[in-house]
From TrEMBL:
Coiled coil start-end: none
Transmembrane segments: 410-435
Record-listed ATP binding positions: 525
Name of the featured protein: Protein kinase domain-containing protein
Top-level division of the source organism's lineage: Eukaryota
Occurrences of domain Protein kinase (ranges): 497-770
Signal peptide coordinates: 1-26
Keywords: ATP-binding, Glycoprotein, Kinase, Membrane, Nucleotide-binding, Serine/threonine-protein kinase, Signal, Transferase, Transmembrane, Transmembrane helix
Length: 835
């Protein structure tokens, strides 16, 4: 009887105990400063109290030197976050100073949410630097959007001084809210990370001297986690948008709480939810022994930089130990071979584990992470998983890149959510203390005895060295398996090639609209079944397309090559060709600004083709019919059926049979048969005139001197009378300076000789400039213009370069996409002399 009662009691206790574990956070930071800047009131966000800095206790952190004022947003939108309604505006170098009780790793979060006040402060114009104890965190930072910047840094001082220094240009700096709190001791910097690069895997020991800026924090296979869900008030976002090929991955989740174990991860490293979901290989409709990778591309700055990458794992897919062996690749380099989680977690399944890496970025603008089965995996279980990813930039680590990096500015927006965490104190302090005591015991042993420092893991193993990296490694022995789509899947997507879904056709095949099972809308280009004559071209197009991925290029979703079928599957682009929006279809005319933005997008795509990948790709068929618009009128260059890799370093051109479209064809190329990237520039110049004049590049029905648009427009441009032939809809709507810029740019593009034409990078810069002239009417200052060289691109336009892997359809706008993939290019794909 007594025994029973004790049993019940202890059962009850352990239930309470478990629920506490699930619901509460055991972590209370020693240093914890939460400031609602520019405000006299306290604000509670997710149960965390942000104190105002105008009066009361919050004001003591603001140092008295420096001049600052507080501003209140007079017209906050009703759903604006409470912390974004006020800001402290610094008119001279100023700082906050926080007393640090516990030296070590700290998190610093800065909230920026620009607004405009009647006091003639437009916070969008702020341009400033922020430093922490003298280390630059943000330099010449200008903010157009609400952003949350998070930094992780070691503080070994008794104070942390956050300084805000306005640039001479803007004259002021601002911040809406600040968080400074001490991190759990074992969060960071405890161990040596694995440095991944051309020399294989090395140790990276200097982590603690690094300041890290969070760029991505991803809950792979799961949902968005808000500060409310996270032990350290972090934000985790889903991985779906970063998957290079969605159909390669399948989400998996468990309802069981992870088995935390002392040498692995703990709840502060990442919350339960991160470890309870994952992506695994999607084997639906595939043979059990098929081997392929899951790959994610995470956009990062394309300036040379070093990134700290933490990968989270928890084997929630295996039923028994030592079944799962897989490889991890970062930027194409083998980062971890034959990873066996059961061995690392001392024979416990579903036990969270994380591994830290350091990698130098190439100039591709992405960090590419892949996981795939290892040779050691049993034939029954060829799988690979990933549960979470954190990518942080090493702010103070300057890399001297050996390969000259492109000076392209891709700005990565850090997720911007204001938040906090509800500290759910269900049972009181006592239980909390018990928990903390327990956690104390769990603290990892010192590094020397740890099981997973790189030396131990790699000790004696022959780490394979991949050949020195191009941004995109060529396919392995298995080909592009990761992109392969089973024929049955394509039949399903197109209702078995339903005639009603045909959106383009040609002598050699059809283009269908389709919907994959994961609801991705696609365009399916199918060669005539059984006709293998186009095989080399098919493979060649696949090679080009699988190498490229860019916001402004239509991307390949997959391909199928089985049962004598050759099929390419592309993302579906909602609004169809630019051409249809210019003339002949009765669609609403685009504004001048929209047209400029579309041209800028297309130029960006083209610039990426020319310079972004290892060898440079020449499109060869730039025209308004091949520039597609998505639902937001974002331009995407399509149809790489003719494109080919550009000249190698020691060649200056490619000799090839002349291909292209009448009216857009570079006359020099036509004469000499020598293809260079300037041929694309010529065609792009014709597109610019087309956009301006809203008429076809060639119109045989017009009087003879008007038939060829480029020739005709040049005559007017030379006379300085271009405005007389522009689209009547645009009459009076283009600022003369903007028109002049575009006229000059287009004229240079269609210059007779390639050498006289600008590079696409120059064209891009001029288009940006024309847009700026249109918007502000203000030319840039002369010094801003003069130091632009052809290799330099315009300043950052804040475009998050998130790969848009598919496009959703709203209405049935099928007319708009009827030429989405022209038959001619398809026929090129299928003919012998296509390349
Ligand atoms: C804001 O919070 C601080 C710290 O809890 C408190 O001392 C102060 O009185 C509060 N101020 C207001 C205006 O409520
Ligand atoms: C910000 O200020 C710096 C230094 O004065 C300047 O180089 C940069 O162009 C400015 N940025 C913007 C967007 O005005
Ligand atoms: C590591 O840090 C030490 C001291 O901070 C420095 O001397 C050394 O150069 C650093 N090593 C690297 C590879 O950055
Ligand atoms: C995360 O927190 C939100 C409330 O902010 C809640 O609605 C959601 O269900 C939580 N998600 C998970 C996975 O716990
Ligand atoms: C997986 O990706 C790595 C790195 O990009 C590559 O070397 C390997 O061949 C890929 N494996 C397969 C099966 O495609």
């Amino acid at each position: 009887m007594e025994i029973k009662i004790i049993g019940l009691l202890s059962l009850a206790f352990s239930l309470i105990y478990l629920s506490i574990l699930r619901l509460s956070t055991a972590f209370t930071p020693v240093d914890n400063y939460l400031i609602n800047c520019g405000s006299s009131t306290n604000v509670t966000v997710d149960n965390r109290l942000f104190t105002g800095d105008l009066t009361g206790p919050g004001s003591v952190y603001l140092s008295s030197s420096g001049k600052s004022i507080s501003l209140t947003n007079q017209n906050p939108s009703s759903n604006s976050a409470p912390l974004s309604r006020t800001a402290r505006v610094f008119l001279s170098a100023s700082s906050y100073e926080f007393n640090i009780k516990k030296t070590g790793t700290h998190l610093v979060r800065l909230y920026f949410s620009p607004f405009t006040t009647s006091q003639s402060y437009n916070l969008n114009n702020a341009n400033f630097s922020v430093s922490a104890n003298g280390f630059l965190l943000l330099s010449n930072f200008d903010i157009r959007y609400t952003v949350l910047k998070e930094f992780i840094l070691m503080v070994n001082d008794v104070n942390l001084e956050l300084s805000f220094v306005p640039s001479s240009q803007s004259g002021f700096a601002f911040v809406n809210a600040i968080e400074v709190f001490s991190a759990p001791e074992d969060l960071m910097f405890q161990y040596v990370a694995k440095s991944i690069g051309p020399n294989g895997v090395e140790e990276f020991k200097n982590l603690s001297s690094q300041i890290l800026e969070t760029v991505h924090r991803i809950n792979v296979g799961g949902s968005k986690l808000t500060p409310f869900n996270d032990t350290l008030w972090r934000i985790w976002i889903p991985d779906e948008d970063f998957l290079v090929l969605k159909s390669a991955a399948k989400t998996v989740s468990t309802t069981h709480a992870p088995n935390y174990e002392k040498d692995g991860a703990n709840r502060e490293i990442a919350p339960d939810n991160v470890y309870m979901t994952a992506q695994q290989l999607n084997r639906d409709n595939l043979n059990a022994d098929a081997v392929f990778n899951i790959t994610w591309d995470f956009p990062v700055s394309s300036e040379p930089a070093r990134y700290f990458i933490r990968l989270h794992f928890c084997d929630i897919v295996s039923r028994s130990l030592n079944q799962l062996y897989f490889n991890v690749f970062i930027n194409g380099f083998a980062a971890y071979k034959d990873l066996d989680l059961s061995a690392l977690t001392f024979n416990l399944l579903a036990s969270p584990y994380y591994i830290d890496f350091v990698v130098g970025s190439d100039n591709s603008g992405v960090v590419r992470i892949s996981v795939g089965p290892s040779d050691l995996s049993s034939s029954l279980r060829k799988d690979a998983i990933l549960n979470g990813v954190e990518i942080m930039k090493m702010v103070n680590f300057y890399v001297v890149s050996e390969t000259r990096p492109e000076k392209r500015s891709v700005w990565v927006l850090v997720g911007s959510v204001v938040g906090g965490f509800a500290f759910l104190c269900l049972v009181g302090l006592a239980v909390l203390l018990i928990l903390r005591g327990r956690r104390q015991k769990q603290k990892p042993k010192p590094v020397e005895s740890m099981g997973w420092t790189p030396l131990r893991v790699y000790g004696g193993s022959s780490q394979s060295r991949l050949s020195e990296g191009t941004a995109f490694p060529s396919p392995g022995p298995y080909g592009y398996l990761g992109l392969r789509i089973p024929f049955g899947e394509i039949q399903l997507a197109t209702s078995n090639f339903d005639q009603n879904l045909i959106i383009g056709s040609g002598g050699f095949g059809m283009v269908y609209k389709g919907v994959l099972r994961d609801t991705t809308k696609v365009a399916v280009k199918r060669g005539v079944p059984g006709s293998r004559q186009g095989l080399p071209e098919f493979q060649s197009e696949l090679t080009v397309l699988s190498k490229i991925r860019h916001r402004h290029l239509v991307s390949l979703v997959g391909y199928c090559e089985e049962q004598s079928e050759m099929i390419l599957v592309y993302e579906f682009v909602e609004k169809g060709p630019l051409k249809n929006h210019l003339y002949g279809s009765g669609l609403t005319p685009l504004s001048w600004k929209q047209r400029l933005e579309i041209c800028i997008g297309a130029a960006r795509g083209l610039h990426y083709l020319h310079t972004g990948s290892a060898q440079g790709i020449i499109h060869r068929d730039i025209k308004s019919a091949n520039i597609l618009l998505d639902e937001n009128c974002v331009a995407k260059v399509a149809d790489f059926g003719l494109s080919r890799s550009g000249p190698c370093i020691n060649e200056t051109h490619v000799s090839t049979g002349v291909k292209g479209s009448f009216g857009y064809l570079d006359p020099e190329y036509f004469r000499t048969q020598q293809l260079t990237d300037k041929s694309d520039v010529y065609s792009f110049g014709v597109v610019l005139f087309e956009v301006l004049c809203a008429r076809p590049a060639v119109d045989p029905l017009l009087p003879r001197e008007q038939v060829n648009l480029a020739e005709w427009a040049i005559q007017w441009q030379k006379k300085g009378l271009l405005e007389q032939i522009i689209d009547p809809f645009l009459m009076g709507k283009i600022k003369p300076s903007s028109l002049k810029k575009i006229g000059e740019t287009a004229e240079k593009c269609v210059a007779e000789c390639g050498v006289d034409r600008p590079t696409i990078g120059d064209v891009l810069w001029n288009l940006e400039y024309a847009l700026q002239l249109q918007e502000t009417g203000r030319p840039r200052l002369s010094h801003e213009v003069s130091d632009i060289t052809s290799s330099e691109l315009p300043g950052p336009r804040v475009v998050p370069q998130v790969p848009s892997s598919h496009v959703r359809i709203e209405g049935d706008d099928s007319d708009g996409i009827s030429n989405i993939t022209t038959s001619r290019v398809f026929s090129q794909l299928m003919t012998k002399e296509g390349r």
